[in-house]
Design a protein that fits this description.
heterodimer, A: alpha+beta, Uridine Diphospho-n-acetylenolpyruvylglucosamine Reductase, domain 2, Uridine Diphospho-n-acetylenolpyruvylglucosamine Reductase, domain 3, Alpha-Beta Plaits, 21 strands, 34% helix, globular, B: alpha/beta, Rossmann fold, 9-stranded mixed sheet, two-stranded antiparallel sheet, 13 strands
Chain lengths: 538, 262
């Protein structure tokens, strides 16, 4: 039987701001996140700069009986780091060193503190700035030198979460994913190891494969020799992208439980992420098709076409393209949205990667694929150069930005108005059924919407833009009904944004009460006093 | 209508950093791009060809073999042909020698219109377009922001001035330099990219265009760059803060008088 024995660590005093005026003026932004949820105040904010200080902060809070949130890049949109119902914030932004780079039989990896941003990590790997790694062993330092000297070798963290300002700690805590999740999966499978610091300040460095559950149970070994079992509920996880609740599986790895736990089970002082070779050439193609039916056929054909392996398959419905055109017109020459050709229809983004020869060769089957749905290479926007790919990425990200901007204007006139954004995924076989469900609901309710996102994973975001509060109520009702249907189809109510505070009602649609109670039981084992992330997840 | 577009490959200035010790550009690892103003010239040429319904757009550039990537990029957005002027004899050219070389090459081609971007973002001289017109003894209109009418005989264009817009009727053939307000460049299609990859790029040497090697390149350049440096940072200035606007004005006048500027 595997036994986990977190060890007490020598804690250090951690910088802490208690002055309320200073918190209100200087650290106001830490009181909220991108979900726009905000707390009015907290009693203190800790700023640890190493694992010992993080442990010290948590031990102090445990002694005081106070609750806290673990704040990182604050890019989440479900409110998991907004310190509502929390007394304190532990800000992990100061733990921002890239500690090590290494290589083993499974490939390359980096070890980073949680406050390293994805943008920093990408830049350090691209520029090969790895000569100062404070946590690297002699072997790891040699691996870094070898990588820096190898002009042919390019590495990346391939998951490609949308928001590059996100911190790796948050990315792991939320099992983040992105467009390339179609090919590479979500963050979970790229986590090699973790240094977890628990609510009582004890820490555990664990690598994948070292601690496994026996069936549905882990066993904690305590300092006095006693054992605490951690029993998990027998739950059938959706066979899709899923960030709804804890990840649970028989004989699972402890890492898989901690990844995606949204700051409720532990803090991460270090994360070890696997890397892979960056393709020599990437071809991004935005293809226009007549309508949604053709887009669905294109996606189905793309998924079964053996001649091409796609990195990403994304969708933009007719309303999303129209919204971008409208936004571009409104913003005038200052708009960063690229010129959209006079396309009429929907668009599917397809990404291919490989050697230059491979991407070039893929153009022929790609032409056949587009031909299969009556589209052509003329009705495409292709990008291969770095700048062109950036422009395409900007275009894709402009859709939610345009939605937020429009809804922001409406909310200025109607307080309390907000968009309803879904984040649900279904298995491949249910793709058409879920689209029919969305279209029927939107038409019957007469609501403005845009549909976009990760259609390759049957995971599109339906963003509803209510015009008034009665439409908002209708949209909420629709969302709840959709959630029930998505679960019936074997899908997940939260595929990548997590549950946080805002989607807890959705989690109740995903699992029966006894499963949720079982998840609460897991939480109680890791954090008996309920000190971490109060009100988050379950 | 046959349109020639002169383009330049430049370092992507959004990525350029300055070496603080030598005050020179660090070009290592910096991508090369088509001079952004030239992309508007390319787009306008393609739009004119589409509007007129006949003719050919040719891009031409002077530089080392790696400029081929810029020419292929132009081919991917609807340009029909690309010509690269590449010869060691062209190296080290200033704006005079560059415009003379381009004009010499243009004389060997048939055209109704020459389009250039208003200036290149690396040198910012805005001299090559007008230089080409002078060497070819053709009418030139700089800072064109709109092509109202165009035929093989004449064109009516709008020119962006600091204080308004000037409408100019010009006899063809002519040379226009364009500003970014003229259009929004299109995005390349996959078909365009594939065509561009396979397209043949014609390379011409000094001998091919019958250039006099004494008049081009470094030898033919009457100017040279002695030093490139970043301008000194401006100091923050002084804010005049008083209760009322008249007080601010009064103190401003006093200051200007003190400085003998009023």
């Amino acid at each position: 039987m595997n036994k986990i024995a977190p060890i007490p660590v020598e804690s250090e005093n951690c910088a802490c701001v208690r002055d309320q005026a200073e918190i209100a003026e200087k650290y106001r932004e830490l009181l909220g996140d991108e979900s726009r949820l905000r707390a009015e105040a907290v009693s203190r904010i800790y700023f640890p700069e190493n694992a010992a200080q993080l442990s010290g902060a948590l031990q102090e809070l445990a002694g005081l009986g106070e609750k806290c949130v673990l704040s990182a890049g604050r890019t989440g949109i479900t409110g998991s780091v907004a310190p509502i119902d929390a007394d304190a914030i532990v800000s992990l932004g100061g733990l921002n060193r890239l500690l090590a780079f290494g290589r083993d039989e499974n490939g390359y990896y980096v070890r980073a503190e949680p406050g390293v941003s994805l943008a920093d990590l990408a830049e350090k790997l691209a520029c090969k700035e790895l000569d100062n790694l404070p946590g690297a062993s002699a072997e790891e330092q040699a691996a870094a030198r070898e990588f820096m000297a190898d002009e042919e070798l390019s590495l990346w963290f391939p998951v490609d979460p949308t928001e590059m300002t996100a911190h790796v700690g948050g990315v792991v805590a939320n099992n983040a994913s992105g467009a390339r999740t179609y090919r590479y999966g979500s963050t979970r499978k790229w986590v090699r190891g973790l240094r977890a610091v628990f609510a009582d300040g004890r820490e555990l460095f664990v690598r994948r494969g070292e601690v496994k559950a026996e069936g549905l149970s882990f066993v904690f070994k305590n300092a006095d020799g006693s054992q605490t079992p951690c029993d998990m509920p027998a739950v059938v996880m959706p066979d899709t992208k899923c960030t709804a609740g804890y990840h649970i599986a028989r004989d699972m790895d402890l890492i898989d439980l901690l990844v995606g736990s949204e700051g409720t089970l532990c803090a991460f002082a270090e994360v070890e992420l696997l890397l892979t070779r960056k393709p020599e050439s990437i071809l991004g193609v935005l293809a226009v098709v007549d309508d949604e039916e053709k887009a669905l056929a294109l996606v189905e054909n793309a998924r079964t076409r053996e001649a091409i392996e796609f990195e990403a398959i994304e969708y933009f419905d007719h309303d999303a393209l129209s919204l971008l055109k409208q936004k571009k017109e409104e913003d005038g020459s200052g708009s960063h949205i690229p010129e959209i050709p006079s396309w009429d229809g929907a668009a599917v983004y397809l990404e291919i990667a490989g050697t230059e020869d491979e991407t070039e060769e893929a153009c022929v089957p790609l032409e056949e694929l587009l031909d299969s749905v009556g589209s052509s290479l003329d009705d495409t926007w292709a990008a291969m150069e770095e700048g062109e790919l950036e422009q395409q990425k900007l275009f894709r990200h402009s859709v939610p930005e345009a939605v937020n901007s429009i809804i922001g204007q409406r909310a200025a006139k109607i307080p309390g108005l907000h968009k309803i954004g879904t984040d649900m995924a279904v298995p491949d076989a249910a793709l058409r059924e879920v689209f029919a469900l969305y279209r029927r609901g939107l038409a019957e309710a007469g609501l403005q919407s845009v549909v976009f996102g990760h259609i390759g994973n049957n995971h599109v975001h339906v963003n509803i833009l209510p015009a008034d509060l009665s439409q908002l109520a209708k949209a909420k009702e629709l969302y709840v009904n959709w959630a029930k249907e998505v679960v019936r189809l074997g899908g997940a109510v939260a595929a990548e944004h997590g549950i946080g505070r805002l989607k807890k009602a959705m989690l109740e649609r995903q699992y029966p009460l006894e499963i949720l109670d079982g998840m609460r039981g897991i939480r109680k084992v890791f954090d008996p006093a309920g000190m971490l992330a109060p009100g988050v997840l379950v | 209508m046959n349109i020639l577009v002169c383009i330049k490959q430049v370092p992507d200035t959004t990525e350029v950093r300055i070496n603080p010790e030598t005050n020179t550009l660090i070009r290592d690892g910096v991508d090369s791009i088509i001079n952004p103003f030239d992309t508007y010239a390319i787009e306008e040429a393609v739009r004119i060809r589409e509007r007129v319904g006949a003719g050919k757009v040719t891009v031409i550039s002077m530089g080392p073999p790696q400029v081929e990537s810029a020419l292929r990029e132009a081919l991917s957005v609807g340009v029909d042909e690309a010509i690269l002027l590449s010869d060691r004899a062209f190296a080290g050219a200033d704006t005079w020698a560059t415009s003379l070389t381009l004009a010499t090459a243009l004389k060997t081609l048939e055209f109704d219109l020459v389009l250039c971007g208003k200036q290149a973002i690396d040198g910012d001289t805005a001299q090559v377009g007008p230089g080409i017109a002078c060497h070819l003894d053709l009418p030139q209109v700089c800072y064109v922001s709109k092509v109202r009418e165009i035929s093989k005989e004449k064109a009516v264009v709008e020119r962006m001035m600091e204080d308004g817009t000037e409408v100019v009727e010009v006899q063809m053939p002519a040379v226009f330099t364009v500003v970014k307000d003229i259009n929004e460049p299109r995005l390349p299609s996959l078909k365009g990219k594939m065509k561009a990859k396979k397209a043949e790029i014609k390379t011409l040497s000094a001998a091919d265009i019958k250039a006099n090697v004494e008049e081009i390149g470094l030898k033919g350049s009457p100017t040279s760059v002695n030093k490139i440096f970043s301008p000194p940072r401006r100091s923050g200035g002084e804010m005049l803060e008083y209760e009322t606007a008249p007080e601010v004005a009064k103190n401003l006048v006093g200051k200007l008088k003190e400085m003998q500027l009023f």
